Amino acid sequence: MGKIIAIANQKGGVGKTTSAINLAASLAVLEHKTLLIDADPQANASSGLGFDPKNIKIGLYECLVQEIDPKDVILTTEVPFLDLMPSNIDLVGAEIELLDMPNRERMMEGALKALKSQYDFIIIDCSPSLGLITTNALVAADSVLIPVQCEYFALEGLGKLLNTIKIIQNHLNKGLDIEGILLTMYDGRLRLSNQVVDDVKTHFQDIVFETIIQRNTKLGEAPSFGLPVLYHDADSRGSMNYLNLAKEILEKNGIF
Amino acid sequence: MGKIIAIANQKGGVGKTTSAINLAASLAVLEHKTLLIDADPQANASSGLGFDPKNIKIGLYECLVQEIDPKDVILTTEVPFLDLMPSNIDLVGAEIELLDMPNRERMMEGALKALKSQYDFIIIDCSPSLGLITTNALVAADSVLIPVQCEYFALEGLGKLLNTIKIIQNHLNKGLDIEGILLTMYDGRLRLSNQVVDDVKTHFQDIVFETIIQRNTKLGEAPSFGLPVLYHDADSRGSMNYLNLAKEILEKNGIF
Ligand SMILES: Nc1ncnc2c1ncn2[C@@H]1O[C@H](COP(=O)(O)OP(=O)(O)OP(=O)(O)O)[C@@H](O)[C@H]1O
Ligand SMILES: Nc1ncnc2c1ncn2[C@@H]1O[C@H](COP(=O)(O)OP(=O)(O)OP(=O)(O)O)[C@@H](O)[C@H]1O
Ligand SMILES: [Mg+2]
Ligand SMILES: [Mg+2]
After folding, report:
1. What residues contact residue A147 under an 8 Å CB cut-off, 6+ apart?
2. Per-residue pLDDT tens for A99-153?
3. Which ligand sits nearest to residue A147's alpha carbon?
4. CB distance B157 to ligand 2 below 6 Å
5. Are A176 and A144 in contact (CB under 8 A)?
6. Which atom in ligand 1 lies closest to the alpha carbon of residue A214?
7. Among B14, B17, B153, whose Cβ lies nearest the Cβ of A153?
8. Which of A97, A193, A250, B91 is the most buried (most CB within 10 A)?
């Protein structure tokens, strides 16, 4: 049975999409069948894999609001073992349209039910908000991976996110685990970067991944070629870091 | 009469808060009476000026939803000529509670009316979304300043934001101008950075500010000291860049 991991943090620009694309691609390279779901109306995960959101006719919005079969929406990518459920700007409408539905927090859980047996991993890229679409992702997920940028403001919102996760665990999804806190955009030369790493490791100890994602220009460049970093520059630090993250997650989940 | 400038872009982590704090502080250093409004429930603008959001008992939420007098909410900061209307996490509630109000898009406009004559500039820091609170800011504003990070994903959302601004100009705020597009986190050594600058200048020509904000560690460090960068390290590139931006805006608006 496939494991569903949501990548969430309401703080903007912390590396959610970069982590979603490159973790999914790393799991695929290790031959685990993986589905990446773009749950952000900005559709950066779709464009980061080379699909122009303007050309996406049906996406996650249709699965959630019009209950279209996910099989009719999922795209294969250039990466073997990696599929994508794309998005476009229509997804913004779902935030409002889901509000009046009786099962509004469980629409994604319903849509993904049939898919869990077809994939080893399903990775969900969330938008920088804790609205209804992100709530849907946290209800559907088995665990949540929290990227935290090695910057001052990144620590501010962590408490609020952990509170929200507790509320979801208590009322909507008892089985929701924390897959881990992932430190991103680390630059060892900066005092601030090292301070944030120390703070996070002290406060959150064993839920912090060993793997730290370093700041690496190849990670910023790769999406402009529509490719995960492993396919843009396999020798880069970014590729190594995300491959190590995938291995750490596989080991933690007893999958070899 | 004070000019209200909203700092908005639904893409996360592009430098909205950093620009709001440091532009406001630069205008204050040039002795223009300035109010910074924190319209993001993450409350990074509040904490970036040294106010712990947990200790903020009343903030923008109370002004919008309970129509409390802004004078009872506004705080003076350590920077002469700079006041702050703080926020805390309660502001998340406004996104839902405003939905049922008849004048839901105009609540901020109403709250700020009496303030325009007391300040030369009112700067509004928006959250990474185009929800009701950001819409309120765009309706209340005379102009919008759009930070664009010199990264690939940053260009993706610009079209959507400009569309939203057009809709607001047509239906809710005819007088809303674009103050300008501000390129942020520029690193001249990176090919991608230079590519984004070229693309933005080609597409948007005369609405792009001359001033470009360079990537500068002092800008990332300053909020951890609760200070604008001008007060953390006045000789830094970050301080120079934002001071130049303030001067460019003053000149553009015929204010010397
Ligand atoms: N380790 C890294 N090194 C260098 N650049 C990075 C790294 N991780 C992410 N980036 C770049 O930083 C920017 C922000 O990352 P990304 O878009 O993945 O964040 P996000 O959390 O998904 O943002 P949003 O909140 O808007 O969804 C992007 O331009 C991305 O290419
Ligand atoms: N020019 C710069 N040089 C270096 N670091 C910067 C610069 N501008 C912003 N930063 C840092 O980058 C991160 C993102 O910036 P900031 O929080 O201002 O973006 P934002 O658009 O307000 O994010 P959000 O979408 O979450 O509101 C912060 O940690 C900030 O300190
Ligand atoms: Mg993203
Ligand atoms: Mg901000």
Report:
1. A7, A9, A14, A15, A16, A19, A182, A184, A213
2. 889 999 999 999 999 999 999 999 999 999 999 999 999 999 999 999 999 999 9
3. 1
4. no
5. yes
6. 1
7. B17
8. B91
